[in-house]
């Protein structure tokens, strides 16, 4: 049995819920989550794709190995958010089962066409990069360039190949240039749902803060203290600055979005560590937080660097790819997965310790069960969705670079946003003070406590009508 000094904390709604109400809480969570999934499935696709064939835009077949290829993107808007240009080379004369790997140079001259039809050269000169042609049954698509935000209403890319020396008997039959950009209809869906989640989160945050206004901070439970931090971070996760992406021609709003998302997700990871450890330890000094902050801090730096590294370099050179600096990229990726594994081991250790010490203690066991159950639901759904989206691609080198081109429909966007928002809303409801909030200091770890569980209403997890006199008398016996 755990021997720890019991702290006085505000009685949470969690203690007063009946079994029937508990089931209704989880049913409401799943209904809200699946409703967003259904809306997402019915929504527009995230990425719009348009294909141009080199045989149509080049002057003669002889130039298929060199170019130049003039690729016109057509009219774009800020609602298209980003632009990718990829190419897939089609070969004739390859034998089945024969792999072909050929490195060659690529030069790209990018022009932005303004509203007055004048062309503006982006960059001081043409961008030169090395690409690797990898073909088996068919050649893998090659990323020519990526623009993180749309600065002009239209673009023209002039592409040339250099030193593309194919083996004898193998010829290029054609080249497919693929233009990918965000669907404007999806962008409108994204704006509206971000706004709806932002308003809902603001309302939940205000209601939760209002419910705790009568109680001093030192009497809040560790869950209530963390909820007062996570809810404002959820506001940032929903990104109140998101509309600036369409009002300002700058990379700054998207960079803030990366910071907000990384900060919220890492704060959620830190909450799980602190909750499972802090629920059985009332004194939480620097030594309590330091190892947790160190682990999650490294994860935050790694996640933010991985998400913003390529974004920053693409501002200088739209043809940049992580493979150019693959050594540093792989080192950072190994660090991220290593620290992630350490985090999981530490979390499982704290979870086992908490259950071994507190599972027989009334009120503490229900806190553990609810926290663990809802956390496992969120983690399971996240892992399943990630697996369905990327499969084994999570472990491949191109995982980070291809993240934003793997969305198939709006459901994948709404799933993650809805899951995390409804997770926080559920915890805010359950961890808010009960109507007649008592203090947990009255609910000591005493053997007589078991009698309080045998309420006349067997549906009650714990009775909320415990008189102070009864508890005081039981204290005197001990």
From TrEMBL:
Localization in the cell: Membrane
Transmembrane segments: 21-42, 191-209, 229-248, 260-279, 286-306, 326-349, 370-391, 411-431
Ranges for domain Wntless-like transmembrane: 183-435
Superkingdom, taxonomy of origin: Eukaryota
Protein's membrane topology: Multi-pass membrane protein
Keywords, in A-Z order: Membrane, Transmembrane, Transmembrane helix
Residues of the TMEM181 GOLD domain: 67-182
InterPro entries membership: TMEM181, TMEM181_GOLD, WLS-like_TM
Chief place of localization: membrane
PANTHER family from the UniProt entry: TRANSMEMBRANE PROTEIN 181 (PTHR31918)
The protein's name in its UniProt record: Transmembrane protein 181
Protein's organism: Porites lobata
Organismal lineage: Eukaryota, Metazoa, Cnidaria, Anthozoa, Hexacorallia
């Amino acid at each position: 049995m755990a021997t720890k000094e019991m702290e006085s904390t505000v009685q949470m709604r969690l203690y007063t819920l009946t079994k029937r109400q508990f089931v209704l809480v989880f049913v409401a969570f799943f209904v809200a989550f699946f409703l967003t999934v259904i809306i997402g499935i019915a929504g527009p696709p995230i990425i719009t794709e348009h294909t141009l064939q080199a045989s149509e835009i080049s002057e003669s077949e002889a130039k298929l190995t060199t170019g130049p290829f003039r690729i016109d993107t057509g009219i774009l808007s800020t609602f298209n958010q980003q632009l990718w240009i990829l190419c897939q080379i089609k070969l004739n004369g390859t034998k089945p089962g024969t792999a072909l790997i050929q490195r060659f140079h690529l030069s790209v001259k990018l022009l932005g066409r303004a509203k007055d039809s004048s062309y503006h050269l982006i960059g001081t000169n043409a961008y030169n990069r090395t690409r690797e042609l990898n073909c088996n049954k068919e050649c893998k698509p090659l990323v020519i360039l990526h623009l993180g935000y749309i600065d002009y209403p239209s673009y023209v890319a002039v592409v040339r190949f250099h030193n593309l020396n194919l083996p004898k008997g193998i010829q290029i039959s054609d080249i497919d240039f693929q233009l990918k950009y965000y669907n404007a209809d999806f962008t409108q869906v994204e704006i509206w749902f971000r706004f709806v989640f932002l308003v809902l989160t603001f309302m939940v945050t205000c209601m939760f803060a209002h419910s705790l206004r009568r109680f001093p901070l030192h009497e809040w439970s560790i869950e209530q203290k963390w909820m007062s931090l996570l809810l404002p971070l959820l506001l940032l996760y929903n990104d109140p600055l998101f509309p600036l992406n369409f009002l300002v021609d700058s990379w700054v709003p998207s960079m803030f979005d990366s910071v907000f998302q990384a900060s919220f997700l890492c704060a959620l990871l830190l909450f799980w560590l602190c909750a499972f450890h802090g629920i059985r330890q009332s004194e939480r000094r620097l030594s309590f937080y330091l190892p947790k902050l160190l682990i999650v801090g490294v994860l935050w730096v790694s996640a933010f660097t991985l998400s913003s590294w390529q974004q920053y370099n693409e501002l200088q050179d739209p043809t940049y790819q992580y493979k150019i600096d693959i050594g540093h990229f792989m080192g950072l990726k190994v660090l991220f997965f290593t620290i992630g594994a350490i985090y999981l081991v530490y979390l499982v250790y704290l979870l086992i310790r908490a259950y071994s010490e507190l599972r027989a203690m009334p009120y503490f066991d229900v806190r553990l069960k609810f926290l663990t159950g809802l956390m496992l639901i969120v983690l399971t759904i996240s892992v399943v969705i990630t697996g369905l989206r990327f499969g084994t691609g999570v472990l491949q080198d191109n995982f980070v670079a291809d993240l934003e081109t793997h969305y198939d429909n709006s459901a994948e966007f709404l799933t993650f946003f809805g899951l995390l928002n409804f997770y926080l809303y559920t915890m805010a409801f359950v961890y808010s003070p009960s109507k007649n909030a008592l203090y947990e200091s009255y609910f000591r770890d005493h053997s007589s406590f078991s009698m309080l569980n045998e309420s006349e209403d067997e549906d009650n997890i714990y009775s909320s009508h415990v008189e102070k006199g009864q508890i005081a008398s039981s204290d005197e016996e001990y």
